[in-house]
Design goal:
Order of helices and strands of chain A: HEEEHEHEHEEH
Number of helices of chain A: 5
Radius of gyration of chain A: 20 Å
Helix content of chain B: 55-70%
Helix content of chain A: 25-40%
Oligomer: heterodimer
Distance between the termini of chain A: 51 Å
Number of strands of chain A: 7
Radius of gyration of chain B: 26 Å
Number of strands of chain B: 0
Strand order of the largest sheet of chain A: 5-4-3-6-7
Amino acid sequence: MKPVHWRLVPFFAFIVLIVLFCRGLALDPRHLPSVQLGKPIPDFTLPGLMNASFSSTALKGKISLLNVWASWCMACADEQVVLMQLADKGISIYGLNYKDNTQNAMQWLQEWGNPYQQIGEDNEGKIAMNLGVYGAPETFLIDQNGIIRYRHVGPLTMGIWEKEFEPLIHAMEHTG
Amino acid sequence: MNLKVSKSFIICLFILLLPFQWVHATRVIYSFSTLKQEAQFNHLMKELRCLVCQNQDLADSNASLARDLRAQVYTMVRDGNSDHEIMQYLTSRYGDFILFKPPLKSTTSLLWLSPLIFLGIGLGIFWRKFRGS
């Protein structure tokens, strides 16, 4: 085999760098993957918006979504349509009302719909901090054992649901 | 007349300065019992990134998350936690990206060492050329 001429080394190094830069520039640093993927959801008990309380034990035993939302969050209204559709399909969705107040939250649900099985009020954002939440909206996919399997930052769309969530859910249903 | 001009000037000045009467500080002032704790807190504020406004540190950012994280770091410093413990707490929740200096791990070794590697390659090529190969 003819040895590669050493003068071509910088050229190949350049090509490698270009590939890395293109890859890196395509990533959005605002949408960081959660470092808690594969870890159990942190235990919590919060005052409930619909019931007296909402605890993390409710999230075990089935595949569910935990959606971080607030009445002051404009983008949450966008994704509410998607969440309502998913709830109709039978997906269990739980809400984490982030840094909000009860009255505004109840009013918002009246206006935009309520797809949630239960909602916890995280007025100070302490539970959200344990989950590594940056802001609203965010949606966590949790499996039957209470393990966080995926975290989506930003409003949930049907496109993202089909591309990221559904494959994981199918895999979980077959192994869990 | 001079008197008339200065009177309207004062009225204008008063109207312009009116909004400033309602300005109040929105930043929480954190106080510490020891200078050491205060130094630790200030140091950490410069080392930690605001994840919402990602080029700002926690000392500068006005984002809601930054306020929460400042409060959290304050509580931990006041309770006597070390830098390592506080950083560990934050990175286990938010990842290494919250630190401005990525820690040296197997995944970041290429990031830290690549300048040296490139220098080595450059010197190697330089060496070969001037030795006449």
